[in-house]
Design brief:
With 483 residues, the protein is mainly α. The chain contains 21 helices and no strands. The longest helix is centred in the middle third of the chain and has 35 residues.
Length: 483
C-alpha cells in the first residue's frame, strides 16, 4: 500500500473538515424536501429523517475506520482497490470522476436558475435552459471555483467555512421564526401517521430522505490534507452526520407545525407539496415574513454554489488518486509544489465541468446514471473494511468499528437498498456501462502486459456476481421493473 504523498499540506483542522462534511451533506435539498416528505408520511416524517440519519451513520462509521487507518487522497477509490485489486479501483475511479464532475455542473446550473428569478436574461425558457449570458455566468462561477482550488487548501477551506456557516445560519433562522407560529394541533389533528408505517420507508427511499444525507465522501477525498487525520476524520464524519440530522429534523418539525390550518382543512397532508412547492419560502411569504423568504432565496443561490465548490476540490483529488494508480491519466498524478494541491487535476476538472454544461439535454439521463453509480460506491466500503481486517490484521486502526460483523453487513444492505431504489431504468444502463468499462480495462492491461488478468478477475469476481444480482432484483422489482 502506497503511503500518502508527503507533498500534501496537512492544514485542515477539525472545524474545516466538519464544515466541509456538513456543507456536502446539507445541500440544497432542504429547500424542497420538507413538503414532499410531509405529503408522503404526514407529521411522522420526523421519524423518516431520524431513520435516514441512523442509516447513513452506519456507513459513516465504516468510512471512519478506513480513513483513519489509511488517510489518503481519493481514499474512496483506493480502499476497494487495496482489498479487491485494480479492476474494482478502476471501475470506481471511472464512475466517480464522471459523477463528481457532473455534480459540479448540476449545482452551478441550479444556482443560475435560482438567480434567474432576480436577474432577467439568465434563463431562456420554462425548461430552465441558459441564455448566452446565463451560460457565461456559469462559466464565470466555474472559473472562480478553479481559482479557489488551485490557491491551496487553506484558501479553499476558508471560503467553504464562510459559505457553510451561511448555509447553517439561514435554516436555523427559518426554524426559529417558524416555531413562533407553531400549531401543536397540526401534529395530531389529521393523524400523526395517517398513511401507516410503510409510508416512513417510502419517504426514506423514494421520498429523497436518504439521498439528502449522502455526502460523506468529500471528507475522505481530502484525507491527505488533514491535521492529525487519525483523530480528526472520525470526529468530523460523525459530527457532520449528527449536525445534518439535527437541522433536517428541526426543519421538518418547524414546517409541520407552521403550516396554516386552512391549507390542511380540505384533505389533510395529502397534496401539501403541490400547495407549498418551495415550502419554507412559501410559508414565510404566507405568514408575512417577506424578508425571511428573501433569505431563503439567497440561500438557494449560495448553497448549490458552495456544494459545487466542495465537489470540484474532491474531483481533483479523485483524479489525482486515479492517476497515482499508474493505469489511467498518469500526467495528472502531480502536485503543485508551491501550494501542495493537484493543480493539473483541477484544470482537468474545470474542463469536465465545462463539458457537462454544454447544451445537450439528453445527457440528463446519463447524469442520473452516474450519480446512482456514485451511491453504489458506498456498498463497496463495508466489504473493503472487512476484507482488510482479514488481509491486513496488523494495520494500525486508530478508529476501530466494534461489532463489524453486524455493522458491516447492515451497512452493505443499506447501501444496496439505496442502489435498488434508483430503479431499473437507471440500473440497466449503469451496470452495462460498468461491465463495458471493466472488460475494456482488463483488455488494456492484458495488451500492455500489466498485472495478472486471471488474478484481477478472481479478486473482483464477487463484484460481477453482485452486479448480476442487483440487475436481476431490479428487473423483477417495483421500482421501474416488471413488478
Amino acid at each position: 500500500m502506497a503511503p500518502p504523498s508527503p507533498a500534501f499540506n496537512r492544514s485542515l483542522s477539525l472545524l474545516d473538515l466538519t464544515l466541509l462534511g456538513f456543507g456536502a451533506v446539507f445541500g440544497s435539498g432542504w429547500l424542497f424536501a420538507a413538503s414532499h416528505v410531509a405529503a408522503i408520511v404526514g407529521p411522522a416524517s420526523i421519524l423518516s429523517w431520524l431513520a435516514g440519519g441512523i442509516a447513513v451513520l452506519f456507513l459513516g462509521l465504516i468510512y471512519c475506520e478506513l480513513a483513519a487507518a489509511l488517510p489518503e487522497a481519493g481514499g474512496m477509490i483506493r480502499y476497494p482497490a487495496y482489498a479487491h485489486g485494480p479492476l474494482l479501483g478502476a471501475l470506481l475511479g471511472f464512475i466517480t470522476v464522471i459523477a463528481y464532475s457532473s455534480l459540479i455542473s448540476i449545482e452551478i446550473i441550479a444556482a443560475r436558475q435560482y438567480a434567474g428569478s432576480w436577474i432577467p436574461g439568465l434563463t431562456a425558457n420554462s425548461a430552465g435552459d441558459p441564455t448566452l449570458l446565463g451560460w457565461g455566468m456559469q462559466v464565470a462561477v466555474l472559473c472562480g471555483m478553479l481559482r479557489l482550488n488551485i490557491s491551496g487548501v487553506k484558501t479553499f477551506a476558508l471560503f467553504n467555512n464562510i459559505i457553510t456557516l451561511f448555509k447553517f445560519v439561514v435554516p436555523m433562522l427559518v426554524i426559529g421564526m417558524l416555531l413562533l407560529f407553531l400549531h401543536t394541533g397540526n401534529f395530531t389533528k389529521y393523524g400523526f401517521m395517517p398513511f401507516g408505517w410503510q409510508s416512513i420507508e417510502g419517504a426514506v427511499s423514494v421520498g429523497g430522505v436518504i439521498f439528502a444525507y449522502l455526502g460523506l465522501t468529500p471528507i475522505i477525498a481530502v484525507a491527505s490534507e488533514v491535521r492529525n487525520p487519525q483523530r480528526t476524520i472520525p470526529i468530523a464524519l460523525t459530527l457532520s452526520i449528527f449536525l445534518a440530522a439535527f437541522v433536517y429534523i428541526l426543519l421538518q418539525v418547524a414546517f409541520i407545525g407552521s403550516v396554516p390550518a386552512g391549507m390542511l382543512a380540505p384533505r389533510g397532508w395529502t397534496g401539501i407539496d403541490r400547495l407549498l412547492p418551495l415550502p419554507f419560502h412559501d410559508i414565510a411569504v404566507t405568514l408575512g415574513l417577506g424578508w425571511l423568504g428573501l433569505a431563503v432565496v439567497i440561500d438557494a443561490v449560495v448553497s448549490p454554489t458552495g456544494t459545487g465548490n466542495i465537489y470540484m476540490g474532491s474531483t481533483a483529488r479523485i483524479i489525482y488518486a486515479w492517476s497515482r494508480s499508474g493505469t489511467f491519466l498518469p500526467w495528472f498524478g502531480h502536485l503543485d509544489p508551491r501550494h501542495g494541491v493537484p493543480r493539473r487535476a483541477a484544470f482537468l476538472t474545470f474542463g469536465l465541468g465545462i463539458f457537462w454544461m454544454l447544451p445537450f439535454p439528453s445527457w440528463e439521463a446519463l447524469i442520473g446514471v452516474v450519480s446512482s453509480a456514485l451511491i453504489m460506491s458506498y456498498a463497496f466500503a463495508p466489504v473493503a473494511a472487512a476484507a482488510l481486517r482479514h488481509a491486513a490484521p496488523d494495520l494500525v486502526r486508530p478508529f476501530r468499528v466494534k461489532c463489524i460483523r453486524v455493522i458491516g453487513p447492515v451497512s452493505f444492505m443499506i447501501a444496496s437498498l439505496i442502489v435498488f431504489w434508483s430503479g431499473w431504468h437507471t440500473l440497466s444502463w449503469l451496470l452495462s456501462v460498468q461491465l463495458i468499462f471493466g472488460v475494456g480495462f482488463l483488455a488494456i492491461r492484458a495488451a500492455r502486459g500489466v498485472g495478472n488478468t486471471g488474478e484481477d478477475i478472481r479478486s473482483s469476481a464477487w463484484v460481477l456476481a453482485y452486479f448480476a444480482g442487483m440487475l436481476a432484483l431490479s428487473a423483477g422489482g417495483s421500482f421501474g421493473g416488471y413488478g
